[in-house]
Amino acid sequence: IFKCKVQMRIRQPIISVLGHVDHGKTSLLDAIRGTSIAKKEHGGITQHIGATEIPIDTIYEICGSLIKERKFKVPGLLFIDTPGHEAFTTLRARGGALADLAVLVVDIREKIMQQTVESLNILKKYKTPFVVAATKIDLIDGWKNSQDKPFVYAINEQKDFVKETLDREIYTLSEQLFNHGFSSERYDRITDFTKNVAIVPVSSKLKIGIADLLLVLIGLAQRFLENEIKTEDGPGVGTVLEVKEERGLGKTMDVILYEGVIRKGDTIVVGGRTKPVITKVKVLLKPKPLDEIRDPRDPFMQIRESSAAAGIKISAPEID
What we know:
By secondary structure, the chain is α/β, with parallel strands linked by helices. The chain has helices spanning 25-33, 37-40, 56-63, 89-98, 114-125, 151-154, 160-179, 210-224; strands at 8-10, 14-19, 50-55, 76-81, 101-107, 130-135, 184-186, 197-201, 230-232, 237-246, 250-259, 261-263, 267-270, 277-280, 283-286, 301-302, 305-307, 310-315. The chain contains 8 helices and 18 strands. The strands form 5 sheets. Strands 3-4-2-5-6-8-7 form a 7-stranded mixed sheet, sandwiched between helices. Strands 10-11-18-15-16 form a 5-stranded antiparallel sheet. Helix 4 (89-98) packs parallel to helix 5 (114-125).
């Protein structure tokens, strides 16, 4: 009897970004990536699920003085951006089912709306821990610019009446979340993250609070999800988000790989409409870090293999 030691490692946690239409999900990711995907989308509404990899070095750079000397085992974060329009319920559910963590994006002025409730129900169903990003704080009357700063620094630059307005808005949001079964508090006032959902105030336009949000996510992943995000170098397992036509390649699959490794030439089995599709990986593509699988700025990288967790594009025969 031979015993082989399986190599275990910590993969990137998969983070689904959910919320009501036009509350700023894609704009939030644009602020992290330094991109402008939201402006390119028809009517400013996301039509497809997107995936973006944020490496740990980028998180260290964005968080700066908030992180200080702390180091994390988590190699980065993989964000899934889901459409907010009511027509995309199944896509949102698929993104929620995949997630290790979620960011629920809520406009600080409009608060909980129809698709916010639907997103909360998805998070409850799959028991997904989540953080609330309370967006558009720059639209609070009297808000002083404070561009590119962490929220905990920016709030100290505001006048007292602005601080009080923000506190009232967050209190109202907390009340609404409580009515849906969740206890919540502004993240910098929480002592026990197992009992409270963290609310992180942000402005995607001014890039305020981006560092705070990333720090909360990476901290929660490392502290509470280390066992869940362990993976081994076995056969790849993933979920197909969408099947799309790609120029020069024909039909391709956008896939979130959440376990193991996939290689060019591998035989893969995919659920079909009436029976499983058995095919081989012809081409394996991946967007560059900080780029978007939905609408990349740079051409996809052709790769020979990919390890979980990753957003990848697969070209294979007979996947129509």
